[in-house]
């Protein structure tokens, strides 16, 4: 009884003080969005209320105002630009200086905001002028675009800016005038204030604020404890806890790096403590946290963008993402299990495991905001209103316990954090809008499709492979939302051109998945670097292991295109049963083959059969399915049948 009384109350209690990391320092190092200026005293109060006021402005703009879309978006970006220059220094090291904003940042912030509010004030006149804008209008637009690009460089980084600059350079090369380019990129809904910012200013920003309020309820720790109660006792328990908790946190988290650092600061030290290699421990967390971006119902906020860009209702997209997400996390879970069996790792002691039902009864109410969100959208509420109701639910459930009860100060802090986290996403979406604008202006997307069609020789699988490479390159170092916009604008049309029978949603899922896994694919692999910073491991080796663990993410997109029924698009019951069996069997075989272990060590021929059989199940054809299942069946028979019988004879 005394042992149980003194047992750890949650997983974080198992982390030795020597293994604890400075979460803020890791975030600042590997997540540019967290590298903000430091304020104290009166400046801190002013910044806090500036950001909180922005969040309130967003609520007003979405719930009350009836402004034209151009005015809504331009004012939103103008405020984002001003806040970005107040929060983000020109150089990373400058963030260490407290209460200091250089004069040039104040000037740039004001000029950038003025450019967008010039558009707001003169919207009617500019609409009449259309492409006949004056030289002064052109100057204002050009300055606005350049200052927005500087915001992106500071907040998001260079990769997406290099891509956007290349596209703008192509527009000049194609013979378009400066006035025409500026008009398209600044004054139309095809540029900076295009679809990405439109979705960001209506849906995404409210979900970011919702995530901030959910953090105040301490739901992240609850997810880790729930995962611990479910899987902590099992073979290799701490790694399985990381997989489950990261999948749960993915329901509201919009960043692979933030998810890795948030849950990894607890799960990685515990994994190391139970015997996992430090690089493997970091890779598990990085791969699972990256998978959070593909986890319905929010999918890193990309689900709302996908609904806008495909014309498919959000509810159908959320449902379509369920089975691919299950396969992704099943693949990681199985590889973790086989690794633990191979190295003889055990689970956590029973006294360190909280009771599931007791935990759910005492803290299960923390799920209520997410339940409210899903139910409201399912019955027809817009995502904006559903998010607002979920925020209200989060405020209510926070009051159930004294330690999470919101005071006016914590309420303002939640609004502040929501606005601060919005800056980075909005900056990325605005630059993504530039790419969309150039594609719309020049038709370069069609030229890229024709080039890939020539390189692939018209062979579907080669065309998909080349598209995958393009997605991995374009997605490196780019936040999830902007990442998806780039993929949807450049690479999704390529698939639809090369394989015309592909459903639009399947093409978008293909490019979205490969854009997301760029976060763990070397050489950039930001999530892997963040995990390695916590584990003390090698970042490159961590990225390689994470890529192997996330093998499902490199296979599921092909399965989705070749068999769209996996997205539950016009799928019959027979098809659902068929792809469920074959897909899970394929994941099991691939995990065992890549780890070289199932019940026991796999011989070389068994590994070849397991991996080959798993890959054959990708193609939705009865013949390949039967051959693949037969190959897997031989391996399973040797591992679980013949060898088990032989062991019993020896024991007898």
Automatic annotation (TrEMBL):
It comes from the Bacteria. It holds the Pfam family DctM. Keywords: Membrane, Transmembrane, Transmembrane helix. The keyword Phosphoprotein does not apply. The keyword Phosphoprotein does not apply. Residues 144-571 form the TRAP C4-dicarboxylate transport system permease DctM subunit domain. The chain crosses the membrane at residues 46-67, 73-90, 102-121, 133-149, 156-173, 193-214, 280-305, 317-336, 356-377, 383-401, 422-446, 452-474, 481-499, 505-530, 542-561, 573-592. This is TRAP transporter permease.
């Amino acid at each position: 009884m005394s042992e149980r009384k003194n047992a750890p109350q949650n997983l974080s209690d198992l982390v030795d003080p020597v293994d604890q990391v400075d979460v803020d320092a890791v975030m600042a190092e590997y997540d540019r969005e967290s590298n903000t200026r430091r304020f104290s005293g009166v400046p801190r109060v002013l910044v806090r209320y500036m950001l909180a006021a922005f969040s309130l402005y967003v609520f007003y703009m979405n719930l009350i105002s009836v402004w034209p879309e151009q005015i809504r978006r331009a004012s939103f970006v103008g405020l984002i630009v001003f806040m970005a220059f107040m929060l983000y220094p020109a150089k990373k090291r400058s963030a260490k200086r407290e209460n200091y904003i250089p004069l040039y940042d104040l000037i740039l912030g004001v000029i950038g905001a003025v450019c967008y509010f010039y558009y707001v004030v003169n919207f009617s006149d500019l609409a009449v002028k259309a492409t006949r804008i004056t030289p002064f209008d052109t100057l204002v637009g050009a300055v606005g675009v350049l200052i927005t690009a500087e915001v992106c460089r500071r907040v998001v980084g260079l990769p997406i800016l290099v891509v956007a600059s290349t596209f703008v350079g192509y527009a000049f090369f194609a013979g378009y005038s400066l006035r025409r380019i500026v008009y398209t990129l600044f004054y139309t809904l095809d540029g900076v204030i295009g679809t990405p910012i439109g979705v960001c200013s209506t849906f995404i920003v409210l979900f970011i604020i919702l995530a901030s309020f959910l953090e105040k309820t301490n739901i992240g720790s609850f997810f880790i404890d729930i995962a611990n109660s479910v899987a902590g006792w099992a073979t290799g328990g701490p790694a399985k806890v990381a997989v489950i908790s990261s999948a749960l946190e993915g329901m509201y988290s919009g960043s692979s790096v933030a998810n890795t650092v948030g849950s990894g600061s607890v799960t990685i030290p515990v994994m190391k403590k139970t015997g996992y290699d430090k690089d493997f421990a970091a890779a598990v967390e990085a791969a699972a946290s990256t998978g959070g971006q593909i986890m319905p119902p929010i999918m890193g906020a990309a689900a709302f963008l996908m609904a806008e860009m495909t014309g498919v209702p959000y509810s159908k997209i959320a449902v379509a993402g369920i089975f691919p997400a299950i396969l992704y996390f099943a693949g990681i879970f199985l590889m973790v299990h086989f690794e633990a069996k191979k190295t003889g790792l055990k689970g956590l002691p029973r006294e360190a495991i909280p009771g599931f039902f007791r935990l759910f009864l005492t803290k299960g109410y923390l799920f209520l905001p997410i339940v409210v969100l899903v139910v409201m959208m399912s019955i027809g509420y817009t995502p904006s209103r559903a998010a607002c109701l979920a925020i209200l639910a989060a405020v209510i459930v926070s009051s159930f316990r004294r330690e999470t009860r919101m005071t006016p100060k914590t309420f303002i802090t939640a609004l502040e954090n929501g606005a601060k986290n919005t800056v980075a996403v909005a900056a990325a979406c605005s630059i993504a809008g530039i790419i969309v604008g150039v594609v719309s202006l020049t038709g370069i997307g069609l030229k890229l499709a024709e080039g890939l069609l020539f390189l692939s020789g018209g062979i579907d699988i080669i065309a998909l492979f080349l598209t995958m490479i393009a997605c991995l390159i374009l997605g490196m170092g780019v936040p999830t939302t902007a990442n998806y916009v780039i993929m949807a604008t450049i690479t999704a049309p390529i698939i639809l051109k090369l394989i015309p029978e592909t459903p639009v949603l399947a093409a978008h899922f293909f490019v979205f998945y490969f854009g997301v896994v760029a976060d763990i694919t070397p050489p950039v692999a930001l999530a892997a670097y963040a995990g390695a910073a916590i584990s003390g491991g090698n970042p490159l080796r961590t990225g390689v292991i994470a890529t192997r663990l996330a093998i499902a993410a490199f296979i599921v997109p092909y399965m989705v295109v070749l068999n769209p029924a996996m997205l539950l698009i016009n799928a019959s019951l027979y098809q659902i049963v068929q792809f469920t069996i074959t897909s899970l069997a394929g994941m099991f075989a691939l995990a065992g083959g890549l780890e070289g272990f199932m019940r026991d060590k796999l011989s070389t021929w068994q590994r070849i059969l397991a991996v080959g059989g798993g890959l054959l199940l990708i193609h939705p054809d009865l013949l390949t399915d039967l051959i693949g299942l037969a190959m897997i069946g031989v391996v399973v028979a040797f591992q679980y049948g013949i060898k088990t019988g032989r062991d019993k004879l020896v024991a007898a």
